[in-house]
Each structure stands twice: as C-alpha cells, then as structure tokens.
Amino acid sequence: MTQIFDPTAVQWLVFVCGCCLGSFFNVVIYRLPNAQSIVIPASHCPACQVPIAFYDNIPLLSYVLLRGRCRHCRVRISLRYPLVEALTGVLLLMLLRRYGWGPAFLIYSVFACLLLVISFIDWDTFLIPDVLSLPGILIGFTTALFNPRLSWLESLVGIVLGGGVFYLVAWGYQRLRRQEGLGGGDIKLLAMIGAFCGWPGVVFTILLGSLVGTVVGIAVMWKTHQGLTARIPFGPFLALGAVGYIFWGEAFFNWYLGRMGL
Ligand SMILES: [Zn+2]
C-alpha cells in the first residue's frame, strides 16, 4: 500500500498540535482550581497583567525567543509553561509511534491529556477536580466500544476494581493512622484509569505508582526534615503509573506470565 502522507510530516504535525494543546492545558491548570473562566479573558502576564499578543504566545518558540521573560515587564515566565507544552507534544508523538494512527492512538491521547492536567492541578492544590475525573470515567467506558485493546466489560471491571480497592485502602489507612491518607479524588482517578486500562492497568498503576511515589516521598521527607508528616499528592504518581501501563504494560505482563511458565 502506498503511503498517502509522509510519516515524518504526520509525526511533526502531531507534535506541534500536542504543544498547542499543552499551551491550552497551561490555562486550564492555572484557572480551573480558581474557578476562573477558561476562555475569557485572553492570556495575560500574571505580573503586569498586560495581555499576551498572539506572536508572544506560540508554544515553546515564544519562550525561547523572549528568553523566558515577559516582553513588557521582563519578569521571569515560569519554566513550567514550556515544560507542559513540550510534555504534551512528546506524549502524543510517543503514542502515535507506539499505536499508529487509529482509535487506540486517539483514545489514549485523550486519556494521557486528562492525566497530565489532573497531575499538575493535584501537584499545585492537592485536589483532583471531579469535573475532570468523572467525565473521564464515562469517556473511558464509552470509548472501550471502539478500543481494539479493551472490551467494555474489562473497562467496567477496571472501574469497579479501581474505585473499590482504593476505597478499601483509604478506609483502612484512616482507621489505622486516624488521618486521611488517600483522598476521594485519588479514588475517582483510579476508577478513571480502570475505565481506560481495565483491571490489569489498575494493578500495574498501583504497583508502579506506589513504587515511584514511595521513592519520591522518602526523598521529600529527607530533604524537608518533616518525617512522616510530609505531604505529597499521590495523583501525579498514579498518572505516571498509568502512562507506564499504556506503553509497557503489555510487555510487562507477557514477561511476568512467561516467568511463571504460563
Ligand atoms: Zn509582564
């Protein structure tokens, strides 16, 4: 079959679209927790309030050209803006390379974008907005009908397991430590991960997320000298685990079952 589009050009297009989406996500991450409108007003400098012209709002490029400073007041622009843009672009590009153009790429792109926005909001505010996770559960479940890698039943089992197991862990932790360790937001996030990835995804996400979360948690305790009272949000680590599953979950389970001689 002849190629209609040059594959390299398609990859560039997906990367650039990803960066533009990332630019929009920066606005969502900043405004959603403050209950501000995502569309109005137009982007402005947080320091001098001067609206940002379209030519100063080009993802990645503008940051480099302005050398990371506002054109008007010269205040430093947070490195986080180009980081979120690049991260979104790279994620979508990697998904395209992993799954090729088709339903799986589109579905996991939506999933990855939701995880990215949720992670940064949770990192900033220790809250995971229901307005993202609850529709996410519904999107994961309905798109399972078109997902060649997941049946609707697997998705449903994933939702129940993700929500249920985490509810039990949260309940046990609260009984044991008499304080809230895992928020309700984490429970809904794991149900969303189950909706997109099925139960193996939930298991993989909890394993990888807890592992990375524990390592980072210990590093934070050591650095801040706060001991067990140090608080870090768990959402970003669950998101990391879920992204790990989209890329390497299948290889991991094949390797594991192979070792078990199955
Ligand atoms: Zn400014």
Write up this protein.
With 262 residues, the protein is mainly alpha-helical. The chain folds into 2 domains: 101 residues, no CATH class; 155 residues, no CATH class. The protein contains 8 helices and no strands. The model has no long low-confidence stretch (mean pLDDT 90). Zinc ion binds next to loops.
Helices, strands, pairings?
Layout (H helix, E strand, L loop, with lengths): L6 H25 L29 H5 L14 H20 L3 H23 L4 H14 L8 H26 L6 H41 L10 H25 L3
Zinc ion (ZN) binds next to loops.
How would you summarize what this structure contains?
With 262 residues, this protein is mainly alpha-helical. It contains 8 helices and no strands.
Features:
0% strand; globular; 2 domains; single chain; mainly alpha; binds zinc ion
Sequence of secondary-structure elements: HHHHHHHH
Q: Compounds present?
A: zinc ion
**Which segments are poorly predicted (pLDDT under 50) over 5 or more consecutive residues?**
none
Number-wise, the strands total 0
Rounded to an integer, what's the Rg over CA atoms?
A: 20 Å
Beta-strand content bin: under 5%
Instruction: Note the overall shape.
Output: globular
